[in-house]
Structure formats: C-alpha cells, structure tokens
Amino acid sequence: MPLMGTSNNRWLYPILLSITFFLVILLIVLSSMNKLQLPLPIYFLILLIFDLAVTAFLTGWLSSTSEWSGPFLKGNMKLTGSIVVFLLILGAGYKYRPVSKDNLFDFTVILVDPNGGHPNFSGDTVQITFDNLVRNQSVNPDGQAIFLGIAPKYRGEAVHVIARLDRFRIGSNPDTLITIPVESTPAVRLPIYPKEDSLLFEGLVLRRNQAKSPIPIVDAVIKFTTFDKTIKTDSLGQFSLYLPARAGDIASVRISKKQKWIFTGDVTLSKNMQILADE
C-alpha cells in the first residue's frame, strides 16, 4: 500500500537539489567576477540573465512557488510566485557583488633620522588608525612601512600614526597626527630621534568584574605621577607612552573617568601591562 503524500512530495528532493546546484553556480560566478575584475555593468547583465534562467527553471519547469509578506510604507505588501524567487536571487547577487579595486591606493610612511639615514628597524612596526580600523605594518630595511589597499576616502584625511620603535621616537608623544597627501602613491616622511633612556610602554585599562571577564575602559585619563606623564585610553581601552624607565620598575598611577578617581596605586611597568580599575 503506497504511503500517503508520496505523490505530493515527489518533487521535493529534485527541487532542493536544483536550488543547491544553482546556488553553487552563483557562488562560482561571484568568485570569478572578483578574480576577473569585470566592470559592474557586465556583472549585473550576467546576474540578470542568470536570475531569469533560475527563476524560469524553478517556477516554470518545477512549478515551485514562494511567498513573502512585510510592511511597506504605511501598509503591508505580499508577494507570491516567481517574483519572490527573482528578487531573492537578485538581492543575493547585489549583496555579494565584486568590489572594484581600481581606486585603492598604497600609502608609505618613511622613517628617517635627522641625518637622513635609515637605521636598523628589525622588529619595529608602524600603526595607523583609519576611523575604527587599526592596521600595523613592519618597517623594512629602508625605513619604510607600506600600507597596501587603502580606501580612496582617506586621501587628504588626517590619521593617527604610532611608531613602535625600540631605539627611536617620533616625538614627545607615542603617536602623531599626519595628513595623507592627495597623490597617486602618497608618502609621508617622519623624522625620528634617539630615545634618551626612555622606553615605550603599552597597556590596557580594564573594569574589574567579579562575575564576568574584565571590560576595557574607554577615555580613561591615566596619570603616571612618578614621571608627571598623562595619557588617555583609546576606543579599545588601550594606551601607550614613553617613560624614562625600564621594564619591571614600579610607578605610582592614578586613573580617572568623568572626573572620578577609579584607581590609585602602584603598577609594574611592562610593554603589555594591564590595570584593573573599579569604574
């Protein structure tokens, strides 16, 4: 005796297999578009042809139907039939469209000493903050840190630069503000100076939390009273500054947030220190 519903579900597996096949083809096409760097008009023409073919196959030959409903302006919209399949495929193709890399540019930071030379920068790095994106790049033997594939919107914009150098500094503070030149291959030369018995110390200020992991404290003002130095944490709760000290030295520190003291005590200086405060 045949099972009830077998005739109604006989097309279920072929439909699912067909949808999977066409999705794989779509992913292959999208990947090829990125590698071939085809112009967007050609990409969308191919996507449209592909979309129409898949929609005709699913809704015509396999008699597949779809339904979508949701708010539209001040009313409700309900779509059924082939238009839903067409719009879903078109939306996926638009979301994963190839990104043009023609306008990306490379930006070079050149570190030079007062005499115009390039000391040994083995292990040294330069960090640039683009809005909320932080990028680090090693310094090559020519004193250059080359940042590849920068978005065109940063041409002519000011960015923060931190040079993590063992034997040199770029100023009295660990970071400096520079403007990216409006050129095809922009470069900025930064003078460096030998450190006078000072080291770069970095750390993280965390809010003490007994039940969960500590949380970084943003915009906390840290005062190293031993050296009369003040620094502020960034959007990640991190800080870095030069101090005339060595790793392992003890320093008195006071931390405030919104004019309220949240930490007072001694800390052991290191290149990756963590300070727990009671915010």
Question: Mind explaining what this structure looks like?
Answer:
The protein is an alpha+beta fold and 279 residues long. The protein has helices spanning 12-36, 40-61, 82-95, and strands at residues 67-72, 75-80, 105-112, 125-130, 133-138, 144-150, 158-164, 168-169, 175-179, 187-191, 193-194, 199-207, 215-216, 221-224, 229-232, 238-243, 250-256, 261-268, 273-277. A four-stranded antiparallel sheet has the order 5-4-7-9, with no helix packed on it. Strands 12, 13, 16 and 19 form a four-stranded mixed sheet that branches. The chain has a four-stranded antiparallel sheet with strand order 15-14-17-18, with no helix packed on it. A hairpin with a 4-residue loop joins strand 17 and strand 18. The protein is flat, with a radius of gyration of 29 Å. The chain starts with 11 loop residues before the first helix and ends with a strand.
